[in-house]
What does this fold into?
Amino acid sequence: MATTDTFTQTLTAKQPRLLSAFEHIIAQNHLAHAYLFAGMDGAGQPELAYWIAQRLFCLNVSEGQPDGTCEECVRIANGSHPDIVTVAPTGQSIHVDQVRYLKSEFSKSAVEGNRKLFIISDAEKMTASAANSLLKFIEEPSGNVTALLLTTNKQLMLPTIISRTQVIEFPPLNAQALQRTFEEAGIPPNQAQLLRGLTNSLTQAQALLADDWLPQTVTALWRWFDQVVKGDPRSFVAVQVTLVGLAKDASQQLVIMDLIAALFQDLLQLHFQIDATELTFGQYEKELGTLTAGLNEQQLVQATELALTSKRQLASNISFQNVLEGLTLTLWPIFKNA
Ligand SMILES: [Zn+2]
It folds into this structure.
């Protein structure tokens, strides 16, 4: 964990409710045998796992919090604590021999009576045989052992694993916490503002910045959007000429749909004069303000709903070009009657 904050500080910012839930669970001695921590990348799953580890092993717990500085806490933060066993994918998968190693550590602890904690990162990457091997361990709890499975792709987890763990869903982060996470990773503030409207995931945010796709797409989308809101027929042509070419795969198509929805939400927010730091397209704040001044609330609500509906159409296998052309055509009449 490359951060100077304690896990408590990070979780207080990212997931205050989950933090207080686990403070309570541990204080009551109600920790379950196996958890699945599921949520978007960056939502705080590893931080909560390491916080639990420190909370269980810390020599100076005070008011339900580990101190983060004692010998035990430091070894946990360094990844060198003998009773915290971590498993992560080697290459693309977590293999069965890694789970066997984990189980051998587990049987040792059962003999010695030590508390042990297993943390399995990217748990959805377990091979079928690794998952089956783990099932047995989860099904037959004994001793002072807790397994924490972390995932950013719960839909890829085997149902048998999900049904045998207590699933903790990590809610998406609030805007300020995300902005901070992205900026701490070196993303400039104005880009962080745009990206946090698209993803909770630092990994995905960094991937979106890896080439100039995002700025290109933002520029093209802005042109389309400005034309749509002004009822300009060129917006229909822009779909085929520029936007379709920018969406090379399904994930880029979804990002574009999210950006379109964010544009209308920004218009709506500005209309109600909500703080501009909440905007996704902060770079176009002035232009958005001019546009929204000529529109009424009903138009904005209708347009935002249409943009969100379009994303669902895309999920139901209508082609990207058809969805966007359809959206463009249904938006025109709304803005024409201004
Ligand atoms: Zn400590």
